[in-house]
Specification:
alpha/beta, Rossmann fold, single chain, about 140 residues, two-stranded antiparallel sheet
Length: about 140
Amino acid sequence: MAKRGVIFVLWGERCEETQAVAWVSRLRSEGRRVYLVAVSGRRVRGLFGIPLEPDIGLDEAFGLVAQVDLIVIPCGLESLNVFRRDPRFDELLVLAGQNGAHFLAHPSAQETVAGLVPDGGNAEVGNVYANSMLAKRGIEKGEE
C-alpha cells in the first residue's frame, strides 16, 4: 500500500473518548500525522462526558482525504447513524475508500462502514479495538 501518511480519528457526540485519545496519542507518539476530525460540532462530549477539541472539521478533512491511509471511527452504530444525517460524513468515507484508505470501526458499526466502502477498492474495515490490521497493512511505525 502506498503510504500517504494521514490518519483521521473521527470525533463526535457519544464517541468513545478512551479509544479516540488512545489512537491519537499512540499514533502521534510514533510520528504519524493524525487529525482528530469533528463530525458533530467543534467541542462535544464523548460517551463518558469528556469533551475533546478536534483539530479539524469535516470541511477541512476533505482537503486531506486523498492523503488518508486510515480512518478510526470510535463510536457505536447509534452514533454513526446520527453522523450519517450529514451527507458530508458518508461522502468523506466513500472518497477515502475510493483512495484506498482502511477503516477501524466499533464492532457494532463495522457492517455499516463496510457498506460505504466502494466495491473493488483496497479498503478494509477492521475492529477499532484490534491492532492487527495496522501491522497487516504496513501502517505501523516506520513503514512509510
